[in-house]
């Protein structure tokens, strides 16, 4: 088994910076801003031939009020499941009362705890560590996470307490190609994190009655009915004019990147507000990305019947451009309808990765054009000869023929709808690519024979007379 290493400490001591250094990624948001990380974030790392798992956590020890309480709970859960703990402190700020409080709890753990003194660049390491020996932790190591100094020596000390990988016989396993990656997207405070916790049956991500609680994209792998899933909790995306803080701008970028990394997007909408303009903007981004889509109308419980009728009418009116999207009315807080979401997600994933042979697709094309031939464009009519599958997520149907560029938009929409109906695609967009064959005689002149030249001369003389 890979050792699990948890990073804990006060806010803004450099835990996310060290997380990125150990995983050699930029997955964790980093800024000179306390309280940026709030949820547990997992990452894989390797030092030489020694693999490990790193858990980034939110800051603890400074307050027990407001959102700090669930952040502390998340950090304690990470400590409980870890094999080793890296207790990080700020070498420039010195020893604080919050550090002493955290250290008193960590000393009780029956697992190795390493005291990591960060931000020692430009300082004498011995002087920076002197005050922290009072915490009673024997293993004290200085590092500069931002520059990578001392990180290798730190990991050598940490990994030395675990068996060599040859003894465990563990090998890296690639991600299952059948893994369903689902990005949970929506505006702030619509219940995305609550929905993820309800699905997982545990308090995996921080939930608080405050817009903007989630700041980073959190990937949570799990298995349901023998099928692997990865849920991606994203930050709420507000209108661009309302985004002023630099941190929120990066959070929005990470949320939109999660859409590109996902295969199915679960768009969470607040049923109390109905479909807003921002929801439509997010829908447009999902369509441009070509991702399968499931819409969850959250907070449906407790609404008046008149308001429910108004919401349904609004859905029919404002979602006419995505008639294929599946809609489910749920309550993430009480669990109503949440279990039915997976049936829609699985059908959307299966539709996005549909497999069909070229012969069957060409026969479908023949049936479609026979029932409704392409309209004429001038003297000629486009000829659609054969089709094949050109891609997935979303499925791409490539149609070859002559004069395909003359097909009107209405007929292309007819082809798309008929293919969607015949292929039984649900919850996923479908794209058409029309390709025309090259004319082999285009640009070539046919040389005239002597007889044709004499006949042409006689005709020209007759015309002149």
UniProtKB/TrEMBL annotation:
Domain EngA-type G: 3-166, 180-353
Family annotation (InterPro entries): G_ENGA (IPR031166), GTP-bd (IPR006073), GTPase_Der (IPR016484), KH_dom-like (IPR032859), KH_dom-like_a/b (IPR015946), P-loop_NTPase (IPR027417), Small_GTP-bd (IPR005225)
Positions with a binding annotation for GTP 2: 186-193, 233-237, 298-301
Gene Ontology biological process: ribosome biogenesis
Transmembrane listed as a keyword: no
Keywords carried by this UniProt record: GTP-binding, Nucleotide-binding, Repeat, Ribosome biogenesis
List of residues binding GTP 1: 9-16, 56-60, 118-121
MF annotations from Gene Ontology: GTP binding; ribosome binding
Pfam families noted in UniProt: KH_dom-like, MMR_HSR1
NCBIfam families for the chain: GTPase_EngA (TIGR03594), small_GTP (TIGR00231)
Role this protein plays: GTPase that plays an essential role in the late steps of ribosome biogenesis.
UniProt family annotation: Belongs to the TRAFAC class TrmE-Era-EngA-EngB-Septin-like GTPase superfamily. EngA (Der) GTPase family.
HAMAP family xrefs: GTPase_Der
Known partners and oligomeric status: Associates with the 50S ribosomal subunit.
Protein name: GTPase Der
Lineage: Bacteria, Pseudomonadati, Pseudomonadota, Gammaproteobacteria, Oceanospirillales
């Amino acid at each position: 088994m890979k050792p699990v290493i948890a990073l804990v400490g006060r806010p803004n001591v450099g835990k996310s910076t060290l997380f990125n250094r150990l995983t050699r990624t930029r997955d964790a948001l980093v800024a000179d801003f306390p309280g940026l990380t709030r949820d547990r974030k997992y990452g894989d790392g390797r030092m030489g031939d020694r693999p490990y798992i790193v858990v980034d956590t939110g800051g603890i020890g400074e307050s027990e009020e407001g959102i700090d309480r669930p952040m502390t709970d998340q950090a304690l859960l990470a400590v409980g499941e870890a094999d080793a703990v890296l207790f990080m402190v700020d070498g420039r700020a010195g020893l604080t009362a919050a550090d002493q409080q955290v250290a008193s709890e960590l000393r009780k753990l029956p697992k190795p705890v390493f005291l990591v003194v960060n931000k020692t660049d430009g300082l004498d390491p011995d002087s920076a560590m002197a005050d922290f020996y009072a915490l009673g932790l024997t293993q004290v190591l200085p590092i500069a996470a931002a520059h990578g100094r001392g990180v290798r020596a730190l990991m050598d000390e940490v990994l030395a307490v675990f068996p060599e990988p040859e003894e465990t016989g563990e090998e890296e396993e690639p991600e299952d190609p059948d893994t369903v990656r689902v990005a949970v997207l929506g505006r702030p405070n619509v219940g995305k994190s609550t929905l993820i916790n309800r699905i997982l049956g545990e308090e995996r991500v921080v939930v608080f009655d405050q817009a903007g609680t989630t700041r980073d994209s959190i990937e949570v792998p799990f298995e349901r009915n023998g099928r692997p899933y990865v849920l991606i909790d994203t930050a709420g995306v507000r209108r661009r004019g309302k985004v002023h803080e630099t941190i929120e701008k990066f959070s929005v970028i990470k949320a939109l990147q999660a859409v590109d990394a996902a295969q199915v997007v679960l768009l969470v909408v607040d049923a109390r507000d109905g479909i807003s303009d921002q929801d439509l903007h997010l829908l447009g981004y999902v369509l441009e990305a070509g991702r399968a889509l499931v819409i969850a109308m959250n907070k449906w419980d407790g609404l008046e019947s008149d308001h429910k009728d108004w919401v349904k009418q609004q859905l029919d009116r404002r979602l006419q451009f995505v008639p294929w999207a599946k809609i489910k009315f749920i309550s993430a807080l009480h669990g109503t309808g949440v279990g039915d979401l997976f049936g829609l997600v699985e059908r959307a994933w299966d539709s996005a990765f549909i497999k069909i042979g070229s012969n069957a697709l060409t026969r479908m094309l023949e049936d479609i054009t026979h029932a409704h031939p392409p309209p004429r464009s001038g003297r000629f009519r486009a000829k659609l000869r054969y089709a094949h599958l050109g891609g997935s997520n979303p499925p791409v149907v490539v149609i070859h023929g002559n004069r395909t560029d003359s097909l009107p938009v209405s007929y292309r929409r007819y082809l798309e709808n008929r293919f969607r109906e015949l292929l039984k695609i649900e919850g996923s967009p479908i794209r058409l690519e029309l390709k025309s064959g090259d004319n082999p005689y285009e640009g070539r002149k046919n040389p005239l024979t002597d007889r044709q030249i004499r006949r042409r001369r006689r005709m020209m003389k007759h015309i002149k007379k």
